[in-house]
Amino acid sequence: MENDIFKALADPSRRTLLDLLQESDGRTLSELCTHLDMSRFGVMKHLNLLEEAGLIMTRKVSREKLHYLNPVPIRQIYERWVSKYAEPWALQLTAMKSELEREPVMEHKPRHINRIAIRSTPEKVWQALTDPSMTSKYWYNGFIRSEWGIDSPYEILSPEGQVQAKGTIIAFDPPRRLVMSWQLLALAETAEEIPSCLTWEIEPHDEMEGVTLVTVTHDEFELSPHTSRILEGGLPVVLSGMKTLLETGTSLSGG
Q1: Least confident of 90-94, 127-131, 185-189, 212-216
Q2: Is residue 43 a contact partner of residue 35, using CB atoms and an 8 Å limit?
Q3: Domains, the chain, ordered by start
Q4: Which residues form the HTH arsR-type domain (predicted)?
Q5: pTM recorded for the entire structure
Q6: Contact indicator for 26, 67 with CB cutoff of 8 Å
């Protein structure tokens, strides 16, 4: 899989497509074609290679096929090949995000989509998502607390017992789908913003036995720009941490 990622990143046109999706997610083929000096078919071929490498995802909205950046594989490459060799300040530099507002997009389409493949079962992934003793090992040390039912409130607490995030369970279908409103309280800039929405989709991989695909969509954050910015960088870390925990029994830090 890493070879596919490096191959996909080697072409400047494909890197341009990733840059375009990072600037404004959820673009159509026609939108992307306007930025590259090549045929529509050529752009489609590049997009197909990026999708095969797991670097982008597509969703059908009405009659449009929308393309989304999947930052999780890039995060994994960084963790394996960069972070253990880099100076401590490198992580701070790579965490810097653009403060410019994204281009206006259609109101009804999801915005940030992250996907990862985990060598585990849907049931174990669901347990990792809902068991406080497990979330505390990959979700920025936060342990989740809820009665787990539709309309049930939940909280994510720090080791000191402070509420870091809270929300309500909107949809609950174990071990396949969990939808939750999301309000990040840990930071002053996000605490006063209105709740956004997180959708977790868990499904067995169609072609790889024993592998589960986990997709997280963050949307409904048009009026919560700070929350959007924080989760855009934070969710890939959470998913990478979940994968490491389920596959190795340890946290990303090795604990």
Answers
A1: 90-94
A2: no
A3: 2-69 (1.10.10.10), 112-248 (3.30.530.20)
A4: 1-89
A5: 0.67
A6: yes
